[in-house]
Amino acid sequence: MLSHLSKYLLIPTATIAMLLGLQNVARGAYLTLWDNGSSENRVDIFFLGDGYTAADVDTTYVSHIDAMLQHLFNEGENPYPRYKNFFNVHSVDVISNESGADIPPEGIFRDTALDASYYFDGEIDRLLYINEVKANQVLVDNLPNISLAEIRLVTVNDTRYGGGGGFYAVYAGGNSDATEVALHELGHSFNGLADEYGGSSEPYMGTEPFEINVTQSPTGDKWSHWLGYEQPGIGIIGAYEGARYYDTGLYRPSENSKMRSLGRPFDAVSREKIILDIYNLVNPLDSWLDNTTPLFNPDKLWVDLIDPNVIDINWFVNGTLVSEAEDEWFRLTDYGFGSGIYEVTARAFDSTDWVRINRDVLEQSVSWTVQVEVPDEVAVPEPRTLLGLVGASILTLMGYPRQSSKSRKL
Ligand SMILES: [Zn+2]
């Protein structure tokens, strides 16, 4: 997969680094693995790696990334597969001197580029995280703008179970649970979700948590729009006690979901948040016929949907829905509109029932002012004449001249 070099690939700095004898640095620039469209209207995922040596980076690192992409988008980890074309994927090769991560209590310290370490907080074995300052520097060194990295996944070349979610979603790429851990950590780092497991037997005494999937309310008012919903694979959405490291005093939306246990689906509340966060970065329309000036007899109006399998379209003329006009292009005369001035609107929207709030971010409309002039007198040919005509000539005789697009001030 890495052999597919994108047009966005920058000039590698690897050669310079090698000449200078620099090590533990990114090899240079980034590779675009999936180019589904302009980064302006896609969620851009960036992979970084830690604990991958120069020998690992074209082999193990590539296979760890491939495994994650396969799991994320092709194995039913909803909602991601449905929105696959809303993402671009890139990777930066970060080269370490040694493989693996630190395990301080065991006296194991590896010389890696991003200082990945288990027991990152000094207490929890599985808490694997990296030095954010060093990771940020890798982004600065390799991306034209670090804000391009809207999702930041860091795979660590170690087989020991672990991960952590902060500004980066970090996971042990060599562990058998790697891809599930990565998805869970994405829930933290991309969507600001809380863990839904308990821990402390002391009751929670703090303020209402900011995360949308945990609450102090025993009735789950925070996700009232989902209460009672029976989600396949999850069960009834309600308010279940025990969340965010407390066994009592905090509630979660489902009995068991991916924010509580690996191998479970995201529950409806989390799934909705993920979709809303995607639409926070992406609009339903990639582009459309220029609408900044009124159009005179345009051949057709058009929009370019980000993914026709996800986005539906309706066309309206003067505010009225034109039934069965559901293509990415629209021609007034095809629907019997003669000479006149019209306001034509294309409404693009995601009809998913996985979102019940803020649905306005799932749709986008564009409008054009169009003047149509159809010739008053159209010669009606004798039937025998018509038989000898084909294609565009017939359209012309029927009063629908095919004119090239042009616009003028009305
Ligand atoms: Zn977690």
Short description:
The protein is α+β, with helices and mostly antiparallel strands and 410 residues long. It contains seven helices and 19 strands.
The CATH superfamily of the largest domain appears as Collagenase (Catalytic Domain)
Cα shape = globular
User: What portion of residues belong to β-strands?
Assistant: 15-25%
Oligomer status: single chain
Structure overview:
- With 410 residues, the chain is an alpha+beta fold.
- Strands 1-3-2-4-6-5 form a six-stranded mixed beta sheet, with helices on one face. The protein has a six-stranded mixed beta sheet with strand order 15-14-17-18-12-19, with no helix packed on it. A three-stranded antiparallel beta sheet has the order 11-13-16, with no helix packed on it.
- The protein is 17% helix and 22% strand.
- The radius of gyration is 27 Å and the shape is globular.
- Strand 2, helix 2 and strand 3 (87-91) form a beta-alpha-beta unit.
- It binds zinc ion (ZN).
- The site of zinc ion has 4 residues, from helix 4.
List keywords for this structure.
disordered N terminus, 3 domains, 19 strands, Collagenase (Catalytic Domain), binds zinc ion, Immunoglobulin-like, 6-stranded mixed sheet, 7 helices
Summarize the helices and strands and which ones pair or pack.
Elements: H1 14-19, E1 31-34, E2 43-50, H2 60-74, E3 87-91, H3 132-142, E4 151-156, E5 163-165, E6 169-172, H4 178-189, E7 230-231, E8 235-236, E9 240-243, E10 246-252, H5 268-279, E11 285-288, E12 295-296, E13 301-305, E14 311-317, E15 320-321, E16 329-330, E17 340-350, E18 363-372, H6 383-387, H7 391-397, E19 406-407
Parallel strand pairs: 2-3, 2-4, 4-6, 12-18
Antiparallel strand pairs: 1-3, 5-6, 7-8, 9-10, 11-13, 12-19, 13-16, 14-15, 14-17, 17-18
The chain binds zinc ion.
